[in-house]
Amino acid sequence: MAEVALSKSNYWKTAAINAALRGQNFTAPTALYVALYTSNPTAADTGQEVSGGGYARQAITFSAPTLAADQAKTSNTADINFPVATADWGTVTHIGIRSAATGGNLLYHGPVNSPRTILANDRARFLTGSIQVSEG
After folding, report:
1. Residue-range domain boundaries for the chain
2. Distance CA 113, CA 133 (A)
3. Over the stretch 103-129, which tens digit does the pLDDT of each residue have?
4. Could you give the percent of the chain with pLDDT greater than 90?
5. Is 43 buried (19+), middle (13-18) or exposed (0-12) by CB count in 10 A?
6. Which residues lie across from 117 on neighbouring strands?
7. pLDDT tens by residue, 63-101
């Protein structure tokens, strides 16, 4: 799948302000996961995540941020390979970065540049560096 630029969820915007400006403790997730969506998850976490057909969120690790032109940027450090679909997953239009393999909180979300229909015996894949987050 193509490059994806992500935006903050309402949960993460609120948590960041509370931690940085209000002194409220925030416990960072110990692992992060990519979730696939067939509709926009929105900042409010209201989208339709893929389910069934062998689908499972996949772990993701990000690089140390780099600073340039008043932006801090990071991207995934390895390819993200979803399992082979055992049934049709639908058209994947968006992804989210979540704090757990199931449930958890949506941290970031965004549209994929080229939505793709995942059929049985197909798989979704994101190459190293294609999932990008910037702050600035």
Report:
1. 4-59+84-124
2. 15
3. 999 999 999 999 999 999 999 999 999
4. 95
5. middle
6. 91
7. 999 999 999 999 999 999 999 999 999 999 999 999 999
Residue 48, amino acid:
Q
Task: Answer whether 0.70 is exceeded by the pTM.
Answer: yes
Residue 37: closest CA among 98, 120, 87:
98
In 3D space, the residue among 27, 49, 31 whose CA is nearest the CA of residue 40 turns out to be 49
* Alpha-carbon distances, residue 68 vs 16, 74, 135 (angstroms): 21, 11, 11
Q: Which distant-in-sequence residues (6+ apart) come within 8 Å of 96 by Cβ?
A: 9, 34, 35, 37, 41, 45, 47, 49, 106, 107, 108, 109
